[in-house]
Amino acid sequence: GTGVVSGVAAGTVNIIYTLPTTCAAVTPMTVNPTPAAITGVSVVCTGQTTTLTDGSAGGAWSSSNTSLATVVAGTGVVTGVATGNVTITYTLNPGSCIATFAMTVNQTPPAISGSSNLCIGVPTPLSDGIGGGTWTSSNIALATIVAGTGVATGVAVGNPVITYTLPAGCFATLLTTVNNQPAAITGTATVCVGLTTTLSDGSAGGTWSSSNTGLATVVAGTGVVTGVATGTPNIIYTLPGGCTSIQQVTVNPQPAAVTGTA
């Protein structure tokens, strides 16, 4: 009664329109195969890829909006470009029969900023340029991180991965290195102008430095501090991994020379 034709199986068929007088008009039609349903993950993050598949060979992939997601025509590899909803289509040739797949593109957070070198027992703030995410550590035996703030603290030497994940599931990662923290600095922390004091640290292999060489200098390899001018500079002992111990030193004035008959 309507002339609406539905394909059932691939092949060639005649569609016939017959009047009550039994006179008829005939048109041949070709029924082409419809590709199988597309399979794969329906969510992709911007800048990342996912692969879709179709069980029917010989087709080509396309995207309804390449400003949101692109797809490699011959492979089904989808790359997220910008947040939004997009339809990925698989078209068989000949016949141009299609299968479609709705996808959502979610935002990938920016790269994590902050030092990738962590020190045992020392809180180190990390940050990401987009809010609303959660921080996690791949191994809390090596480093912990506060989920809501991104403050990481080294626990043991190793290479944990810090991850920042947005509610939609897209994430950014940072490979970190947890280094040993040097021991506390020992020795007399006062020195007179022009005189020396020797500081030491129980951790070998480090280098000494002064926060203000106008107040006190220190020999990098020995820890011998020389007072230069009155003040309270910090003397720093740094291990190769960048972890430090700090000791504030007080530089006192040297009295003037004694005068009188000797």
Question: How does this structure look, described?
Answer:
With 262 residues, the protein is an all-beta fold. The protein is built from no helices and 27 strands. The strands form ten sheets. The protein has a four-stranded mixed sheet with strand order 3-9-8-5, with no helix packed on it. A three-stranded antiparallel sheet has the order 4-7-6, with no helix packed on it. It has a three-stranded antiparallel sheet with strand order 11-14-13, with no helix packed on it. Strand 6 (69-71) and strand 7 form a beta hairpin. The chain is rod-shaped, with a radius of gyration of 36 Å.
Describe the structure using short key phrases:
262 residues, mainly beta, four-stranded mixed sheet, three-stranded antiparallel sheet, rod-shaped
Helix content: under 10%
Average pLDDT, rounded to a whole number, is 96
Rg from C-alpha positions? 36 Å
Q: N-to-C terminal Cα separation, in Å?
A: 134 Å
Counting DSSP E segments of at least 2 residues, the number of strands comes to 27
Which structural class do the helices and strands define?
Answer: mainly beta
Order of helices and strands: EEEEEEEEEEEEEEEEEEEEEEEEEEE
Spatially, the strands of the biggest sheet line up as 3-9-8-5
Unreliable spans are none
Count of separate DSSP helical elements: 0
Shape: rod-shaped
| Percent of residues in beta strands | 35-45%
Largest sheet: 4 strands, mixed
